[in-house]
Amino acid sequence: MTQEKEPSGAQKAFEEFAPDFVHFTDDVLFGQVWPRTELSPKERSLVTVSVLATLGATDQLVYHLGLAKENGNTEAELIEAITHIAFYAGWPRAMSAMTVAKQVFAA
């Protein structure tokens, strides 16, 4: 007996509305880009969190902060990354990202 895989976040949110978007998210981004070996999952997560914080993409940051911890980043490393980007991406973006991080880490 095979166990069915739980639907991805993209599938839950958009499967009926935007199936091609779900395909690109699940099959290309997470299926082909994330598994590349040139960066470790920990490094890839740190880059992703930094970019999302820089863009002010706080909705996606919630998921990716959790994934970053699963991939081996410590809370201290993630807090330091957000602190560091404040000087490059702007204080308001870092403040928003730090607020999200505090909520995610408290959960």
Q: CATH class of the largest domain, anyone?
A: Mainly Alpha
How many structural domains? 2
Q: How many individual β-strands?
A: 0
Mean pLDDT, to the nearest integer, reads 95
In short:
Helix 3 packs antiparallel against helix 4 and helix 5 packs antiparallel against helix 6. The protein folds into 2 domains: 30 residues, no CATH class; 68 residues, Up-down Bundle (AhpD-like), CATH 1.20.1290.10. Helix content is 75%, strand content 0%.
Structure in words:
It is a single chain. The protein is an all-alpha fold and 107 residues long. It folds into two domains: 9-38, no CATH class; 40-107, AhpD-like (Up-down Bundle), CATH 1.20.1290.10. It contains six helices and no strands. The longest helix is centred in the last third of the chain and has 16 residues, at 91-106. It is globular. The chain starts with 8 loop residues before the first helix and ends with a helix. 19% of the residues are buried.
Task: List the SSEs and their pairings.
Blueprint: H1 9-14, H2 19-33, H3 41-55, H4 58-70, H5 75-89, H6 91-106
Helix pairs in contact: 3-4, 3-5, 3-6, 4-6, 5-6
